[in-house]
Amino acid sequence: MSAASTFAARKAQLVRRLAGRGGEMRLHKRTSSNLFRYAPRREARRGLDLDGFDHVLGADPATRTLDAEGLATFESIVEHTLPHGLVPLVTPELKHITLGGAIVGIGIESNCYRHGFVHDALIEAEVLLPDGRIVLCTAKNDHADLFRALPNSYGTLGYILRAKVRLMAAAPHVHLHTISFDDPVAFLEAMRAATGRADVDFIEGLFYGRERLFLILARFEERVPRTDDILRHNIFYKLVTREPDVYLTTHDYLFRYDPEWFWNLPEGWPYRLFRRYAPAGLRNSGFYKRYTGIRNQLRSALPLRPGEDEEPLIQDWEVPWDQAAELMRFALSEVDLAGKPWVATPIRTPASPTLYPVRAGVLYFNLGCYCQVKKRPGEGDYHYTRIMDRKCFELGGIKMLYSSTFLDEPEFDRIYNGAAYREIKKKYDPHGALRTLYDKCVLHR
User: Fold this and answer.
1) 67 by DSSP, 3-state: which?
2) CA 380 to chain centre
3) Residue 294: C-alpha distances to residues 199, 275, 284, 403 (Å)
4) What is the pLDDT of residue 304?
5) Are strands 212-221 and 245-249 parallel, antiparallel or unpaired?
6) How far apart are CA 353 and CA 421, in angstroms?
7) Which candidate, 88, 66, 72, places its Cα nearest to that of 29?
8) Domains of the chain as residue ranges with CATH
9) H or E element: which one contains 132?
10) Cβ proximity of 373 and 141 under 8 Å
11) SS3 assignment, position 299
12) Which among 159, 179, 207, 437 is least buried, having the fewest CB atoms inside 10 angstroms?
């Protein structure tokens, strides 16, 4: 049976299973979620099981397109496409992010300045609506409004069962060249200038302070003098700030932050042994997230709880490029990452989606933070997230909603085009079977 036939059979079975179901709907996933909520979800009812929709249906080298089901991970997608010399236009750096999740969320990478977000590669999607119907949406058919509203909807309008996306050519290796800076203005100018270079495929920055900034320019290569090991012998973010030239397989580059879950794997001697000898299946962000979840549950049961003086700061903020220097200045002045880096990437999207109103064709500066920070004595919970959010919005920016957000509903609606959202929500979910975007992303319902 062909991949298309098996997908059709799974769809038919799903429709039969949903017949007469009614009531609220919520997705249940066995894969590790890449939502980073600071507090647990307020309600934990079991949801709709769509785990069977995790197959790569096929890649077409002639048209450079991929068909995959919504819960197919980028790890499985790259395993399927890379032997053909192809990869997704934008591949999130954590292996267990799913294609559907990256489309209805906002997926970024170090080549977003050229290709936009993950959803900008979308050609068509089959979406399971809250009433159990399955519709095909494209940019030009009767469901074009849903197509434009999928990005940043986080599954509140429906679930992607299948997506067709564009691919790009990829060589077997990537050469990374790091340039050091001791001045933020020069660092930003060099990053902006690199977006116009034809000999650069990926642009990323890591910085630790005003005088320790690293711009990493990378490009595909057919042949390289060596390949550096970032699974067993090197920690990626340290390697690129130590060596001016690093050579990785394309697979390792695309998922370069996955072995360490950015920089969240501790560095004591037990973890050095773990890095060297643990099975490869345990050296990934999905395992670490499950591990930290269990660890935090155990800690919460102790009378004296270790780690109570820390809180997460896991966020991405985007501001127009002319505000980049001010956002950097504020972050470095107000937040101490205790030796961990900030991540910077340029972003330019070809289109402005309904619910994530960045301006098409405008260069943005994305600032990311993915670690724990020490709480400031006397401050309320999540102080650093709140002040960084406020600064970002003051500068005319926007933030991704995969992590916790602290906004009242009118302000949330103003920033994320709430009026348009309510119109499309009313059309595709008139009975409120799925939570609203505010319920899910702010209230954690």
Assistant:
1) strand
2) 27
3) 45, 20, 16, 19
4) 47
5) unpaired
6) 11
7) 72
8) 24-170 (3.30.465.10)
9) none
10) no
11) helix
12) 179
CB 411 within 8 A of CB 417: no
Q: What is the pLDDT of residues 401-428, one digit of tens each?
A: 999 999 999 999 999 999 999 999 999 9
444 in Cβ contact with 39 (< 8 Å): yes
CA atoms within 13 A on the CB side of 80: 20
Ranges assigned E (strand) in 225-350: 245-249, 310-320, 342-347
Query: Whole-angstrom Cα distance, residue 424 to residue 433?
Result: 14
**Per-residue H/E/C for 327-377:** HHHHHHHHCCCCCCCEEEEEECCCCCCCCCCCCCCCCEEEEEEEEEEECCC
| Tokens 């920070």 sit on residue | 373
Kindly report the number of other CB atoms within 10 A of residue 440's CB atom. 20
At 295 the three-state DSSP class reads helix
Share of the chain above pLDDT 70, in %: 89
Helix, strand, coil abundance in the chain, percent, nearest 5? 35, 25, 45
Checking if the pLDDT of 77 tops 60, the result is yes
Cβ atoms 90, 112 nearer than 8 A: yes
Of 138-142, 192-196, 254-258, 285-289, least confident by mean pLDDT is: 285-289
